[in-house]
Amino acid sequence: MNDVKIIFNREFKAYFYSPIAYVFSVIFILLNSGLYMFHFFFFGNADMRAFFTQLPLTLGLIFIPAISMRLWSEENKLGTAELLLTLPMKIEHIVLGKFFASFVFYLVALAGTLAIPVILLILGRPDFGPIIGGYFGAIFLGAFFLSVGIFVSGFFSDQIVSLIITSLSCGFLALIGWQYVPMVIDGWFPGLGEFLYSYVGVTRHFNDIERGVIDLKSIIYFLSFTALFLYLNAKSLERRKH
Predict the structure, then answer these.
(1) Contact between 218 and 228 (Cβ < 8 Å)
(2) Residue 189 and residue 217: Cα distance in Å, rounded?
(3) How far apart are the C-alpha atoms of 198 and 104, rounded to whole Å?
């Protein structure tokens, strides 16, 4: 696992050399905090339901695509991907190193929103059960979306293209987890919307955890899909190597 650590250190340090990472981290924190505080002062609810409701879209459409787009696309553009793949390292270890680096960076950005529950504690008496559940779900949600982003990034040398495709992919996964979207799909293709909602849509499973319902099915869903996209990324790179 020393190879994973080497790649992790390389990729994690790279985030702090890039102004893009700082810019999107600030945007992520300010956007989510700003939208939530508007809801808080407008409706006066001392909970974070509105924050976690918007999180799948703000993560999937903006932040995760922005921090994952460079992971392989930059390597492809510079021609260092082929060099990296020829090193005496397992491809799986390279993929895991990149994934963990982006995941830890995501956790750092997510920690920037912890000011919200602190403010709620000062202003009122929030129920911390759903708040803890929401952050717990956000960890799984971010890991899943990052695995999608890394997988997509492996196919492109243009970071903007990678960002757009990842944004569309994660946005789709988030939207089909909202019940009204599958209902529209069922109107066109009977049964398809319900299937996508039950087995593919990410928001439904995230909401279960956010409400404090730690359902084993939702945990398995996130872990399975995260592992699947990391596996697919490793396999696609292995084909390039040979």
Answers:
(1) no
(2) 26
(3) 29
* Percent share of the chain, pLDDT over 70: 95
CB 12 within 8 A of CB 105: yes
Residue 99 to residues 120, 165, 193, 205, 231, Cα–Cα distance (Å): 33, 18, 31, 22, 12
Predicted confidence (pLDDT) per residue in 60-97, tens digit: 999 999 999 999 999 999 888 888 888 888 999 999 99
Spatial CA neighbour of 174 closest among 147, 192, 150, 201: 201
Show the tokens assigned to 117.
């529950």
10 Å CB burial of residue 164 (0-12, 13-18, 19+) is: middle
Q: Is the pLDDT of residue 45 over 90?
A: no
